[in-house]
Design a protein that fits this description.
alpha+beta, seven-stranded mixed β-sheet
């Protein structure tokens, strides 16, 4: 039992319980029985939602009415029960009917409700047998089946109808019901008499006087008998008489003969025949026995059909019609359902028709016609004439199975209606067509009534609908063909119209093909909205879809909306619908407001489904004049946005508002993105809104850009100025200051733009998907410092990137950045570091960075997208870079250049792009770029830095020097190390194998901490080597057995690490455990020798910096301050291990550290050597002097030599730092002057480089502190950087003497084989300048150039020339090498001091040459002039000196020899000050024509005897308080040298003949000048007696000396 049934039976039980409880005891059983019989037929669903009390109330109410109604009259009650009045309630109006039980009751009641348009919710009826007692009270009741005595049978009705509140409606309904029940009663009561009458007529019929043959009579009798057999529901009868009156006939009924419903019309009613239509008149007078037709009235009993009419004519003796017996009623269902052959009359009628047609019995056509007639509507078969039926049957036969519409019309004989038969193909038949047909027929026949219809479907392809059009008079003109044409048009489906439209637009073949594909493709909703002609346009678009082109669109303004701002967009998409959330933002960004959207799926006959999305939108059309043009632009732009070729943002508004193409809007977008990168504070949204507010200015900006870079006719400066002026005029209407600033910034940026690839096309003639701009940053106001010289910004929807260059020849890596918002800031920081790092190599610094904007999540796809973005970025750079072909500059195609030639562009690997160099070289190849695979170093054909270990080896030079300066040799002495990284890394792995004496106590990377408290250097080295050689390794792979007690490998993911006793001891802590980060921090703070950074991350900052300043969030938890670092030495193999301030803080507390760019310069230097070698060799390959294979082999064969060249640079660069640092704070003032000089030229920004302010420097000077090594590192780099730039001048680069620098910069095999080719090297000048600059700064210190310039006013080229002469004359190279060879053999301090003396002497010599050299001589000649004198002098110096002086020199030399300096070198170094006189001696010898030994003898002995040497010492040792005093002191020394030289010349001129007795000559001369000498001796005595001297004393003394030499000179003559 279902839940509903259970509930229902429970409710009925409850009703019974209520009856038992409330009804009088004697009636309980009867009422209960009554209720059960009433409710037993109620459906479970109806019962389910009712409550028992209302059901009880209703039953009781009906029972009470039943008990009261004792008569046979029907009782009808229509009321709204209320609890207050009736004791129960219902939400509906209740109808109670109690009537005598008879047929047709239920049907007739239902029909009455339908006619009154009243809906019933529940209709219960129960026929009951009722027995009453003598008091007329009901004593028993039962259903009709029961064998019970009964005084009456009644049917009770309980009906719930729609709630009626209008009493007039209730009254009229009640009256209608009464009248209906009356009719039923009348019809039922008279049924028997009418039947009898019919039988009587039938019997009597053959006797009537008519002239018909027997068969017709028999047929008629048969028909009447058939009717009697319950095939006709008889409802009324009346006899009519036809009598002649005044030339007419009158038909009059006999009222008294009326039976059944005929009794209802009692008034006299007669009709004249002339009132009838002619057909009817003929029919009335004809001798046909039967008249079969329909009456005009709808039956209210049994069935709501028009009442059928059977008339049987009566005749007089002549056979004239004199009247009729008329029966009315309804044919029963058997008449309609049985075969026509079973119905008398019809059978013969059909036979007669079949005889009239020409088809032979048994043929297909015969059967078909028969079938048509058999299935023809019965009423029509009865009423229509045979000829009419034949015509229809033949017509239908012709149409059969064809896609046609046909109409057959028959007039009713009595002029009351038209009977219309409409045949249409069944698949075309639908409600809409039926309604339209009703309208067409109603209009055609001027009918006001509703056209009735019945439809018949069979297995035929045609559907037949019988329409009855009721009219007052059917005698009207009509044309069946016209009506039929209208019906054909109505039946033409949307698909038919589509087919016609397709055939018209595409021709027959293609049209039919498309029609087959699309005829059933469209949904109903689509057909309701879209005209077939418009669908053809949609089909054309759908046909364009394929896998490569998944989206098509139409953008149009509907004609209905021509004057409004509503536009429509249809999107056609392949296979799947477009998601609203994808497309809405796009449309809104175009400034469109979507107000409606309808999706349609289109399923073609091949099973494919495509989609159409229809959007209605509001367009903010500020004057869109030419919609077609705009439409094309918009469609192109939207397609680009959809396929990610254009970004989806507010700049797209300018397509519709500013009349730009999507690509033109991208210019504005690209500049806006660049603005964001250079730190403009406005958000992109704000910039978009500015341009949306002033779209015409946006267009002008684009126009300015287009005119400036137009390929065909670039605008002149004058035109551009005019365009800019126009924009500025427009700005007067811009009220908002921010908007004004944004627009001006756009103009400034376009002014600053030098080149763009915007007008370039790719191989297939399409514009490129990305745009690159070359910019001169110095022309853009408020750019963040430092300003690069050139910059290229590449923009595309997939990638944005920037490439900054410090100069024309620049190198540096390209990084895959993840800082989308500020990648330029990151790159700017890197390029600054690159600038200082690149000082040892030819190019200055450059750096690039790009971000990918559409990265997928899948790892492989992620990496692939990175590569694709890298390619776009590289192409963007090369697109606007000049090329060199056969030594000639070739500008890029379709690029208008607003700058000079610029062909040097190299890139390198960096973070994220380590493996991308080959890709870059592939692209360079594709562009036929002159650098070939020198474009990107680190490719597969090039030097493998990891294999060479070049970066680590370079940094190890720094480490060795730091230790050496503590007099430790790292290659022979064990030392402890803490290191960052792991053995799989390049810098870490190679670095930790560079000494067998490394005791690696701690190492950590992002995964592990390796701890070895007491490492054994001998066993740990091979284990590290093993790890390094594994394809990939981590600390987990380290053999744990080789770790000393208490050590291990710990995971950084651990919550905490328990400390072993050994670890506690090492750390000096009592803690039991630490977190991994705490532990690392503690390790960094414990005491150890070397911290080697071979990893990624920043671990050391200064106490003044916050972690946020550092910008490396990952390592915030373990970063320490420089002052806390426990190491003695910090070696920076990796970048950014410490902040610059962190290094300075570490150095200030005594730590030894350079900077990362000094330490790890090896990698860069190696790459640059590779590039320069490749440039040289690629030139030879192009010329055909070398094959590519030979080139590659040669390249690899020189690996070791390239490494040596690089390491030499590393060694020398750190060396110069040490020498500069060795003098400490005593030389601080010189360095400060150097800083000032750089600042004055705008070359140095102290804040950026963390160089102390003047106040801080003054404090350091007062405290006796110098600049730290990290600070000196920056200054050394700047010194080289500035010098390198200024030495690219013809005075240097074209000087043959310097060609050796070019040659020596290449490895030996190249020097030997390709010496002459080097002269054609594109970077010849830069290489010479770089090498010379490095030599000068390495040899002479960072402030040498500035000092020389300040002291002599000479320019850089002159100073460089004189330096070259001086260092050559003083054999600086050899002496320097001799000292360097003593590494680890003598104390580093002694070594450094020796080098300092050498540097000082060459500096003085340079100054001498700047002042006195013979400019007519070139370098080689100058050297040749002085070299012999130097050789003689250095060999014989002690012989030329007085004994006392030579003893002093020997004593000084002995001191050096004690420190293990070889005797020869020691002598050279102590003699340097004396050897300085070589230039004067050589010139005196040349001028006087005397031999060197004679001149030297005289010079030194005279100087000693006159006390000039002692006096020189006084000058040299005089302390200076400021720069001017230093200059004064230098000039005094020069002055004294000059006087000594002059006096020597005077003495030599007095020499008689060839006298070799120098001492004698000097005695003689001194005697002769005694008077003049007296004054000088007094002077010296003054000096000797006082403790300290001031500068004025020196001035006066030198003045005396000058007078002396002047007077002696004169007196001698």
């Amino acid at each position: 039992m279902t839940r509903n049934e259970g509930q229902a039976s429970v409710i009925l039980d409850n009703v019974c319980k209520l009856i038992q409880k409330k009804v009088h005891a004697d009636n309980v059983l009867l009422v209960e029985k009554f209720a059960k019989s009433l409710y037993s037929n109620m459906s479970k669903e109806d019962l389910a939602h009712r409550n028992d009390s209302d059901l009880y109330g209703a039953a009781l109410s009906l029972w009470n009415s039943l008990e009261k109604n004792t008569s046979d009259d029907a009782v009808i009650r229509v009321f709204n029960p209320e609890v207050a009045k009736d004791g129960w309630q219902s939400s509906h109006t209740i109808v109670e009917i109690i009537a005598k039980d008879m047929p047709f009751l239920v049907d007739s009641v239902r029909m009455a409700m339908t006619r009154e348009n009243i809906a019933s919710h529940l209709l219960l009826h129960s026929p009951l047998k009722i027995q009453r007692d003598k008091n007329a009270k009901i004593s028993a009741l039962s259903n009709l089946k029961a064998e019970q005595e009964s005084s009456s049978t009644k049917t009770v009705f309980f009906i719930e109808i729609d709630r009626q509140t209008d009493s007039s409606v209730i009254d009229s309904f009640k009256k209608e019901l009464e009248s209906v029940l009356n009719d039923v009663s009348t019809a039922v009561e008279d049924w028997q008499p009418i039947r009898k009458k019919l039988i009587a007529v039938s019997k009597e019929l053959p006797k009537r006087n008519h002239n018909n043959n027997a068969s017709e009579v028999a047929e008629t009798v048969e028909f009447l008998d058939w009717l009697v057999k319950d095939n006709f529901t008889l409802m009324g009868y009346r006899q009519y008489d036809l009598s002649p009156v005044q030339g007419d006939y009158q038909l009059k009924g006999k009222i008294e003969s009326s039976l059944g419903l005929m009794k209802n019309s009692t008034e006299e009613h007669s009709r004249l025949l002339s009132e009838l239509p002619e057909v009817a008149r003929q029919e009335a007078r004809s001798n046909n026995l039967l008249i079969l037709t329909k009456t005009n009235s709808l039956s209210r009993v049994h069935r709501p059909a028009y009442i059928d009419y059977v008339g049987i004519k009566r005749f007089d003796d002549e056979g004239n019609v004199i009247g009729e017996d008329r029966f009315i009623g309804l044919f029963s269902s058997s008449f309609y359902n049985n075969s026509a052959a079973d119905v008398p009359v019809l059978k013969s009628k059909i036979n007669r028709i079949m005889e009239m047609c020409d088809f032979a019995k048994g043929t297909h056509a015969y059967k078909a016609v028969l079938n048509i007639l058999e299935t023809y509507p019965r009423d029509e078969l009865v009423q229509a004439r045979e000829s009419e039926l034949l015509e229809v049957a033949m017509g239908v036969l012709q149409v059969q199975e064809r896609d046609m519409c046909r109409l057959f019309v028959r007039k009713d004989a009595y002029g009351r209606f038209f009977s219309c038969m409409v045949y249409v193909p069944r698949e075309r038949y639908n409600t809409a067509l039926r309604r339209e047909t009703q309208d067409i027929l109603g209009n055609a026949f001027n009918s006001d009534d509703k056209v009735e219809f019945t439809t018949f479907f069979s297995e035929s392809t045609l559907a037949r609908t019988h329409y009855t059009v009721r009219v007052t008079d059917n005698n009207i003109e009509y044309n069946v063909k016209d009506i039929e044409n209208n019906l054909v048009e109505a039946a033409r489906t949307w698909e038919d119209k589509l087919q016609s439209a397709l055939l018209e637009s595409a021709g027959e073949a293609r049209g039919n093909e498309l029609n087959r594909k699309y005829c059933n493709a469209f949904a109903r909703s689509y057909k309701d909205e879209v005209l077939p002609s418009a669908a053809v346009v949609d089909i054309e678009k759908l046909e364009l879809l394929n896998d490569d082109n998944k989206l098509e669109m139409l953008f149009y303004r509907p004609q209905e909306e021509a004057n409004s701002n509503i536009v429509r967009l249809s999107l056609f998409h392949k296979d799947e619908p477009i998601h609203l959330s994808d497309v809405m933002p796009m449309l809104e960004n175009f400034g469109l407001r979507v107000i409606g959207e309808t999706p349609y799926s289109v399923k073609t006959s091949d099973g494919r489904i495509n989609w159409i999305m229809d959007f209605s939108m509001l367009l903010d059309s500020k004057g869109i004049a030419d919609f077609d043009k705009v439409s094309a632009r918009f469609r192109a732009a939207l397609t680009s946005v959809w396929s990610n070729r254009l970004e989806n943002d507010g700049f797209n508004r300018l397509v519709l508002m500013g009349g730009l193409t999507g690509r033109e809007a991208s210019i504005l977008r690209a500049y806006a993105k660049y603005m964001r990168q250079v730190g403009v504070t406005f958000s992109q949204t704000y910039i978009e809104s500015t341009l949306a507010n002033y779209p015409h200015i946006g267009s002008q900006i684009v126009n300015l850009f287009a005119k400036k870079f137009s390929v065909k006719s670039p605008a002149s400066v004058k035109t551009l100025d005019k365009l800019i002026a126009q924009i500025y005029v427009e700005l007067e209407n811009v009220a908002n200051l921010d908007d004004d600033r944004i627009i001006r910034l756009y103009v400034d940026m376009i002014i600053a733009t030098l080149r763009t690839n915007y007008f370039q096309k790719d191989d297939i003639g399409q514009f490129k998907s990305y745009v690159s701009f070359k910019v001169n940053p110095s022309l853009i106001p408020d750019m963040p410092l430092p300003l690069p010289s050139f910059e290229i910004f590449v923009y595309s929807p997939r990638v944005e990137g920037v490439h900054l260059r410090g100069g024309k020849v620049a190198r540096g890596g390209l990084r895959w950045s993840d800082r989308r918002e500020d990648f330029r800031t990151e790159v700017l920081g890197l390029v600054k570091a690159q600038q200082v790092k690149n000082t040892v190599i030819v190019p200055v610094g450059s750096k690039g960075g790009f971000v990918c904007k559409q990265l997928p999540t899948d790892r492989d796809a992620f990496f692939k997208e990175g590569q694709e973005c890298y390619k776009i970025f590289i192409r963007g750079l090369l697109d606007i870079t000049d090329n060199i072909i056969q030594g000639e500059i070739v500008p890029p195609v379709d690029v208008t250049r607003h700058d000079e030639d610029d062909a040097y562009l190299v890139v390198a690997a960096d973070k994220g792009t380590a493996t991308f160099s080959d890709i870059a070289n592939g692209i360079a190849n594709e562009y036929n770029f002159w650098l070939g695979d020198a474009f990107a170093s680190g490719g597969s054909v090039g030097y493998d830095h990891k294999k060479m270990g070049i970066t680590a080896k370079g940094a190890w030079e720094s480490v060795k020097r730091h230790f050496r300066e503590m007099d430790i040799d790292t290659q022979t002495t064990d030392f402890t190390v803490v290191a960052i990284g792991d053995m799989a890394g390049d810098v870490f792995g190679n670095g930790m194998l560079l000494s067998k004496h490394i005791r690696l106590q701690v190492a950590f990377n992002h995964m592990h901490i390796f701890v070895d408290p007491n490492p054994d250097s001998a066993t740990s080295y091979p284990e590290r080597e093993r790890l390094f050689n594994l394809p990939r390794s981590s600390w987990e792979d380290y053999n744990k057995d080789l770790i000393s007690a208490g050590g291990g490998v710990f995971s950084r993911a651990a919550k905490s690490i328990t400390l072993t006793p050994e670890m506690k001891k090492m750390l000096g802590t009592k803690k039991a455990s630490m977190t991994p980060n705490e532990l690392i921090k503690a390790f960094l703070m414990m005491e150890f020798d070397l911290l080697w950074n071979g990893g990624i991350g920043t671990y050391i900052k200064s106490s003044k910096e916050s972690d946020a300043d550092v910008g490396d969030r990952a390592n915030d938890a373990l970063r320490i301050n420089g002052s806390e670092l426990g190491a003695k030495v910090l070696g920076e193999g990796g970048n950014l291990g410490a902040t610059q301030l962190g290094r300075i803080e570490f150095a200030a507390k005594g730590g030894r550290v350079n900077t990362d760019f000094i330490d790890n310069v090896g990698g860069v230097a190696c790459s640059d050597n590779e590039v320069n070698i490749k440039i040289l060799l690629n030139g030879l390959v192009t010329a055909g002097d070398l094959t590519r294979k030979q080139r590659d082999e040669l390249l690899y064969s020189m690996t070791d030599e390239v490494a040596q060249l690089v390491l030499k640079d590393c060694y020398r660069q750190t060396h110069t730092l040490s020498i500069t640092q060795s003098k400490g704070s005593s030389t601080l003032k010189e360095k400060v002057r150097f800083i000032h000089a750089l600042e004055k030229d705008g070359k140095l920004n102290r804040a950026i480089e963390f160089i102390p302010s003047d106040e801080e420097l003054a404090e350091r000077a007062a405290a006796g502190k110098d600049l730290t090594r990290p600070e000196l590192s920056v200054l050394v780099s700047y010194a080289k950087m500035v010098l390198k730039e200024s030495l690219v001048t013809d005075d240097i680069t074209e000087n043959p003497y310097y060609r050796q620098l070019l040659v020596k910069s290449f490895p030996l095999p190249l020097r030997e084989k390709f010496n002459t080719a080097m002269d054609n090297h594109p970077l010849r000048k830069e290489i010479i300048a770089t090498k010379l600059a490095n030599n000068i700064v390495n040899d002479m210190g960072l402030n040498f150039m500035v000092r020389m310039h300040e002291e002599t006013g000479a320019n850089e080229a002159e100073i460089a020339l004189c330096y070259s002469v001086a260092s050559e004359v003083f054999q600086m190279r050899d002496t320097w090498s001799a000292i360097v060879d003593l590494d680890n053999k003598i104390p580093a301090a002694v070594q450094t001091e020796m080098l300092y003396q050498l540097r000082r002497t060459v500096r003085r010599a340079t100054r001498w040459f700047l002042r006195h050299r013979n400019k007519a001589q070139n370098i080689e000649q100058t050297i040749a002039f002085f070299a012999p004198t130097f050789a003689d002098l250095s060999a014989n110096l002690t012989n030329y000196m007085v004994e006392k002086e030579s003893e002093r020199l020997s004593a000084a030399a002995d001191k050096l020899i004690e420190s293990a300096v070889p005797a020869e070198l020691a002598t050279r170094i102590v003699s340097l000050s004396s050897l300085f006189s070589v230039m004067d001696l050589a010139e005196v010898a040349a001028n006087s024509g005397r031999s060197i030994d004679m001149v030297s003898n005289t010079y030194f002995k005279l100087g000693a005897r006159m006390g000039l040497h002692w006096f020189l010492d006084q000058i040299t040792h005089q302390p200076v308080a400021n720069h001017w005093q230093a200059l004064a002191r230098a000039s005094y020394r020069e002055e004294l040298d000059w006087q000594q030289r002059t006096l020597s010349e005077v003495v030599l001129n007095n020499f008689a003949g060839d006298n070799k007795d120098v001492d004698g000559q000097i005695d003689q001369w001194m005697d002769s000048q005694d008077l003049l000498l007296q004054r000088w001796k007094q002077m010296l005595a003054e000096f000797k007696t006082s403790q300290s001297h001031d500068f004025a004393k020196f001035s006066v003394a030198l003045r005396e000396l000058m007078l002396l030499s002047h007077n002696c000179d004169t007196s001698a003559k």
